Amino acid sequence: FPPSLQVFPSQDPLDRADFNAVEYINSLFPTEQSLANIDEVVNKIRLKIRRLDDNIRTVVRGQTNVGQDGRQALEEAQKAIQQLFGKIKDIKDKAEKSEQMVKEITQDIKQLDHAKRHLTTSITTLNHLHMLAGGVDSLEAMTRRRQYGEVANLLQGVVNVLEHFNKYMGIPQIRQLSERVKAAQNELGQQILADFEEAFPSQGTKRPGGPSNVLRDACLVANVLDPRIKQEIIKKFIKQHLSEYLVLFQENQDVAWLDKIDRRYAWIKRQLVDYEEKYGRMFPQEWCMTERIAVEFCHVTRTELSKIMRTRAKEIEVKLLLFAIQRTTNFEGLLAKRFSGCTLTDGTVKKPEVPLPSTNPFLEDETGTETDEIVMEKSDTDKPKKPKVPDNPFHGIVSKCFEPHLYVYIESQDRNLSELIDRFVADFKAQGPPKPNVDEGGAVLPSCADLFVYYKKCMVQCSQLSTGEPMIALTTIFQKYLREYAWKILSGNLPKTTSSSGGLTITSLLKEKEGSEVAKFTLEELCLICSILSTAEYCLATTQQLEEKLKEKVDATLVERINLTGEMDTFSIVISNSIQLLVQDLDAACDPALTAMSKMQWQNVEHVGDQSPYVTSVILHIKQNVPIIRDNLASTRKYFTQFCIKFANSFIPKFINHLFKCKPISMVGAEQLLLDTHSLKMVLLDLPSIGSQVVRKAPASYTKIVVKGMTRAEMILKVTQ
């Protein structure tokens, strides 16, 4: 629609944008009969045209005055704007005047506030000045009269008040008062030190019967004075208190040696009790004087013991050293129960590092028997851990002096372990191999448990003595005798693979003719091999656990130096050699049967019957050896599986090689060999559970090897057919 129709809607056809004159005329005169009214229609249109002309004329005339009216309205609007600006200016002027008035009022209020604050500060400062001046006078007077009880409270107040005048030190009078306070403090310090020197003279050991109230109050004053005064009092008192100890336990005295170390600790216990009774109330509780005396005693004792042990190092024996260390650690434990260790932060002794949480199954209660067997199972790691023992802040405060001499202990353990290994060798030779015991499985050699029980004792004992270099030295000793045990006790007692009569090796038996005797291991020898294998497996697992526990015991900086991988590899070699011996024994027992197979006249076989005699012989040897080995390796099933796999990998290729030697061969002979091969295949598949009342499914890895190898043998025979 055109814009005019949007503003003024109309239904008149003449106003339409798409107006068509022809259609409009046809709508007026739709038929010929309607033309009779043409005059009437023309008159109506003319009338409408005249009306439109009149309307247009009126509108045009009405627009002649619009310009004049617009100018008049614009002038009126300009006048109104001028009036509005005038009113706004008046309002702005009044606002500025109001603001100025408010500023003047607030300025007066601020001045009053400042005046009030200054007045309050002045009054407070004058009061403080009055208190300071009076306090200084009183302080000087009380100091001369040694009224330490009143001085303690007054001095703290004077010092606090003087802090308020730090910013006024430029004023001569204030500076003079500050200097008088410092002079009074210096005088008090010197006077108190002189009083203590008089009461507790450094020369001589005779002490008064008890403390005085003056000295007790003097200690309260020392709390307020320079900390050096307090430290000097403590130092002199402790030195005088321990002077008798230095005389009684001089290096040239009999009681100074390690065998009478108990007397040192008994002396300090008596002295601490005597101190509590006589001087316990003289010193403030927060000074921890009892603990300080004990700590200084420990420092002195450590120094004195170090000197005397350096002088008489050749006289130190293991029992004497352990006795002294035990008594010393007991004393350190007693100190930990009695004191908190708060004074150690002032000294040179560092608190021991927090040990790692231990899951060591070796660590039983120290009161337990040392002959208990140690069971190192993986399930031990799932057991609840022992609650962590609180740290002893006094650990090593005296016993640290023994560490340079622990080489005596380490050398002693070296000798003891050497004797232990020799005893194991002698016992094994005297008692002989373990008796066959197929009901309970292969037993671990008793000497293995004895060795690790002794290791546990040494490890726990050494960790109590030191967690530093001595633990590394002990670990080296452990490594040495783990290797010796592996070679002398385990590997050294494995049966030999050479027959005692003919001197033939197992491999040479392949050349023996059918019917010759094969040098097989006896039942006792098979049980011995299995027992050594089980022992080596136990040692391997236990050594791994031992390495972890040693790392938990040693200092964090030395953990990387604990490594028993070489010893674990040694036990792995023993295990591998044991399995190889078992495989070689069974393999050699089957060799004559395979040799007989290759020498049979297979071209003369006329009919297929039951399995051949050589198959029966192989099965017989398997049924003789495998149940014994399985029952004796019941506790180490994975190594029995390894035995089965290694035997299959050795027997099957050898069987296939002998098949190629069976020439010439007839069709019937090939069928007989195929039947024999199937029989051997079924026996080998049943090898892990042969002769057992409990039938277990063979491991998949083993079954795969047997099926693959024997299927190849069957395919060779089928091709031959």
Automatic annotation (TrEMBL):
Q: Where in the cell is it found?
A: Endosome membrane; Golgi apparatus, trans-Golgi network membrane
According to the entry, every stretch annotated as the Vps53 C-terminal domain falls at: 671-719
Q: How does it sit in the membrane?
A: Peripheral membrane protein
Q: Which domain of life is it from?
A: Eukaryota
> Which biological process annotations from GO are given for this protein?
retrograde transport, endosome to Golgi
Q: Which family does it belong to?
A: Belongs to the VPS53 family.
Name recorded for this polypeptide: Vacuolar protein sorting-associated protein 53 homolog
Name of the gene encoding the protein in the UniProt record: Vps53
